[in-house]
Batch of 3 targets.
Target 1
Amino acid sequence: MTDENNKPNGEGSQQAKEDSWQEVGRQFQAFGESLAGALRTAWENEENRKRIDEMRSGLESMVDNVGQAVKDTAASPKAQHAKDEATKAVDSFSNAFDQTAQEVRPHLVAALRQINADLQKFIDRLKEE
């Protein structure tokens, strides 16, 4: 049998990283589902529905503005230079980020779990009202 410590080139460590990030992804997914549930529950109230419509309109406007700004600047020489510089920075940052990510991942998962639990309590309170 082969265990993680006997795998060449840190394959076990790589698998652990992938598993941890998958857990982060699952927590974000759960957060999204909880948030959607809260919005659905809030939608049942007419006053809340108006506020949600206003929020949706503002979010759509923000997305449109950001999308247009990206389109407008993506082809400019400044954007290309910034992209080149960003690529260099990302390469330098990558090693430091890997170590930090390993340290942060468990805290991020715990925080997302807490957010999901708190959001579920909020949904339950809305349903009771």
Note: Residues 1-7 have pLDDT under 50 and may be disordered.
Target 2
Amino acid sequence: MVTAGDDFVEMEVRVAATPETVFSFFTDPAKMVLWKGVDAALDSRPGGIYRVNVTGRDTASGEYVEVVPYSRVVISWGWEDSPIPPGSTRVEVDFIPDGDGTIVRLRHSGLRGEGLQQHELGWEHYLPRLALAAAGRDAGPDPWVGSDMGR
């Protein structure tokens, strides 16, 4: 499910894993790169660094704003060397128990124009990869690594 507004994109994906498991894919660098990125430096506490080299040349950067174990993560977000500077937008992720799985609700706000469209495509690409990885499956090689796909 995708919802877009004037300055945000919101998406949901159901993951066949517990909130505890899915939460770790947003806070553990080794798990992050199973679904998004080639390298990650994460310090998942309020004020801690969030830095993910997503494609081998495009690096998302910001900091953790809010971390509620197994329930919610909020990250300030942007791109190094980009018109959307590090920390200039906000990614809010809620982990909602759903039977034996988890609904991941992601809202990325503070986006405008082309940036809104690019991030909608980006999250549409990466959230299904999260669903695979967090469920213990191989998300496979990311076709955006080393390409212009994410731009």
Note: DSSP finds three helices and eight strands in the chain.
Target 3
Amino acid sequence: METIGIPLMDSVLKMFPWDKSKEYQNLVERYGEGIRSVLEELLLLPLLHFDSVNDLSESIGKDKNQYYDLLKDPKINWIKLLQEITWYLFICILRVYQNSESKSFHSRWRIRILLDDTLIRRWSLKMAGVYNLYNHIDKHYMYAQKVVFLAVSIGDGKFVFPLVYAFTEPKTHPIHQKHTQIAVDILSALYEFTKEQGLTFQGLRLVGDSGYTSKVIVSAAKTMGLEFYGSLTASWTLILQDGSTIGVKSLKNGRIPAQARKNSYFEKEYYRLIAYHPDLGVVALSITPYIEAGTHETKYWAYVCSNPDIACHLIIREHTIRWKIEQMFKTFKHNIGIRFYQGISISGQHAWFALTCLRFIFVQFAFKISSRHPSLRWNISHKKFGLAAMMRYIRNHYRLSFNSKRDKRLHYSLLRFSA
């Protein structure tokens, strides 16, 4: 797929960093130069509004087995392919960030490493990585894959992309690891890779939710020179500056031994505390109100930062930025096909997860290019040009009418330019 006739996508395909991966070079040696075309077609499958690999192969006249054989190939290290590309991007951005001497640049384009996990609902235990998991949102158990993600956010969420993912295993599995330990292992590997490139984590922040606020995570962050931002569950107990102890449960219910504050950066009142914990050390707490769903009572979030000198509104802002990874998960599940069924084997699942992460990076590149070139986003307002608008335009202008018998075929321009 040297070109597909859609200028925006063609522009991204030209710059996509396949060649930065040794695993990709191994694929070229095994499959030939045509493997790039196959990978790119799989990458764009849901963006071009195809429903399946069969749909794609029928529309552009290719044998579907070349796609399935690639997805099922157990010799391909899909995690390595993804990691080599994403870590290359991370190092490029980090080098520019740390080589700049401008404090303003460091403030506006600060790099955050985001930690979180998500559940991918499945319908059979036969699929790789699936077991019975509790869904805390819907309050019931379901068959799902639990996936730990590390992602990077540049600036105030201006550019977000996944670094790497890992499946978790049930507690009964011989190689079971806690999700926090999985995150630390990945973070440690990234840290060692960063040092090999002559760089450090100086100036970077590590942001996670309450599930990633633990001794092992905070200790790793301190060792690597990262500022840690997290949130506390009700079970934590802290020691205040006057020597008294207080439970986070009391803070969450509004029993806060401090005066409310206000700031132009934050519309609601908040509270600031300095406290100590044997595992976390000295930390700053920023306590903010919210209305609890269902009861409509006022409850409080207890956000924590390993830097006790940080301003409260900055702690709050970091957790606002953290929601970018939740938006990434939403995009994965609803728009770019992470839940598509592409086989039950571990190789097939890793193939599709890795391709979905790369597809998300492709979309981020497309947004960055289109922001500078209005014609590439079809002169749609930059504020209104999102993934839904892009996919809708492709569906409406590069597909035949849905009333046609060939409603699954692309417009002639794609057929004409496809390899």
Note: Confidence is low (pLDDT under 50) at residues 400-419.
